[in-house]
What does this fold into?
Amino acid sequence: MKKLVYLLMILVAMSMLIIAAPPEKVEQTVIKLILFDGSQWGETFSPKEYANFYMLAGTDNIIIPTKTKVYYWPITQEYMADYYDQNEELEGTLEVYHGNKLIKKVEKEDYSFAYPQGYYGGRPELRGGEAAKEAAVTYQKEVEAYYGRVMAYQEAMDEYRIALDKFWENPEAYKGRETEIPKEPSQPDYPVFYATEAQRGYILNLEPGTYTIQIEGQPESKRTVSVFNPRRAGPGFEIRPEQKWTMPLNSNEIKETVYISGKQTMYLTPYNGLEVNMYKYSKLQKLPSVSSGRGGEMVYFWMQLDYINDAKLQVLKDNQLIDEVDLKKWYVQQTADAALGYEIIEFNPVELGERPPSFEGYKVDLDGTGRYSFRLVDAEGKVITESERLVRSIGSQSRFFAFLLPLIPILVGILIWVWRSSLSASEKGTDKTSTPQAV
Amino acid sequence: MKKQQRPYRAIAITAMARRELRSTLFNVGIYIAIALGLCVASFLLYNYVGSIQENGVLVLPSSFTYTRYLGGTIPSPEPMQVPLKWAVYIGAIYITLSASMAISRERDQGTLEVLFYGPVDSVSFVIAKFVEQILAFAVILFFYVLYFVFMSRVSNFALSMGFVKMLLLSLLLAGCMAAFGMFLSSLSRKVKTSVILFLVFTIIFISVPLVHSFLMAIPQDEVKGALSIARQTTSYLNTLVTWVSPFAYLDRGATAIELGSVAEFVKSLLFSLVYTIILTIGSIGIFNRKGVRR
It folds into this structure.
């Protein structure tokens, strides 16, 4: 019995060892990739097992050849880089070959990501060279200015508290002097501009095609780059019917028609869209994963990118402009009684306090008659390419006829069958139509 | 000698095709096929209308685009094109079934040998059968056009040049399907064998792309292990089917219409023609080798 217990203990200990076994790390030169996906930059890397990586054409991307430790993580079936263990960036000139021809030499430079409209608003911008340092300095100055405002606010608050104490000592004394009653200072505004610290890398921007890159004289850094264009691009719309605001529909391209039934109110939120190859785009986002993009070599899909918030929406009826709408924030409010229901009201921060808006969009009311269309126009009134959508109202009798019409060919068939039967009977069963004859 | 042969062939082809077409039109089968096609189209249109009435709004087509070859099978811009495509599939399946029995039935019944005592040779026989299938499909399309024009009026669903292009493509699909059916028919001596072959291939041609598109619709994060391998396997199979399946040639054209690419559209027409010619020549070759006797 004791032997059995010991045996079990050894087995348990061994199984624990197996679970705790760390993956084997191998030192190799990888390419750290910070790639543009159409609206922002995401990070992945190219180990030697995935020596072919993907990039969008005509966009700035960051390439950083690095010596690090790589291991395979079976749980998620992907290669991982342990930059904490080893992170030695390679120096030198990056050579770009198209076929055997050297087409470009790229030097390492400073880069940073700037967010002019704040980290959570608008697209980031990649700044290279001196501009990267300037962006970092600008952000630093913004932060310092903010601290200055915070200090001033603190001082103002201290003075306010003293003045308030004085006020409470004898409030009656302020009768007729209401303007002298101390007022609470307003909180300082947060800095809007944000930029990451300047780092160093190779900024690569290529036309569609297949290229080979490597650091001059360092063949271990050699990789193949497949640069691709999106198949189509253009503004898309999230379309929220008023009665189902939580279930928006997407319209990604100009050829799509919006069908409505009767009178409708819709909320339209425009965004930038890209139609891309699923395999290439998945690899662009996550290269060293076995499952990423697998089977998607011939699949295209639309990627919904960032929202468009600097345009107006024009609504046309029978090709005549009937309305021009601004983008507004909306708040969905439950109705006051016990029954289920809601109403969508314009977002008003004064009334709603710290509650955030439910969504942003253009409100469009359609009466369900005539032919409508809508389109986006920029600040100068120019129609944004590919932003137009047709709206059609469907007929109410469609379902009835959808039932009825398939019966007609059957009716024709029955008539022919009856006619042929009568013909066969009159000809005593002779069928002239079914047996082939020599010509 | 050759100059005399041509008119005889033309006469034989015309006479046989006319006779076969008459026989087809006087049978109930073609009307059942048309009705089935319209039922599927009606089912889709019924769902579209129902969905619009329930939700108030519907965007057609859906956003996810499933692609084959260099373009893809994309739900078309007008709601009429998707029902048309499925109706055309059913019509084309009927044509393939009919074509797959065309040679084997005659051989099986022994009428082929009798036929060849007249001024009929393998070329005129196969081409006559092929022409008859195309004409029968044109009749099917005629019913479809009437249906869709009427439904467009009633429902207000758009019909445009894309629809007309789809009709043209459909005729070429019928060519591919008829050629494919004839090819199967020429391979087998028994009707039963050719019907079985037809069923097997049709199921493969339709199910492989459907299964692949179903697997590809699963979100990337949920695709692990066997599912991931299944995705890759169906992707390979789908690539193969893309070149072998006559349905794929319609899909290519549909993609070209969707992308508005004239070059791709013309290319898809050419591919369909090449496919049809290769299989028709193959059918004649196999027919010659197997002979006319049972």
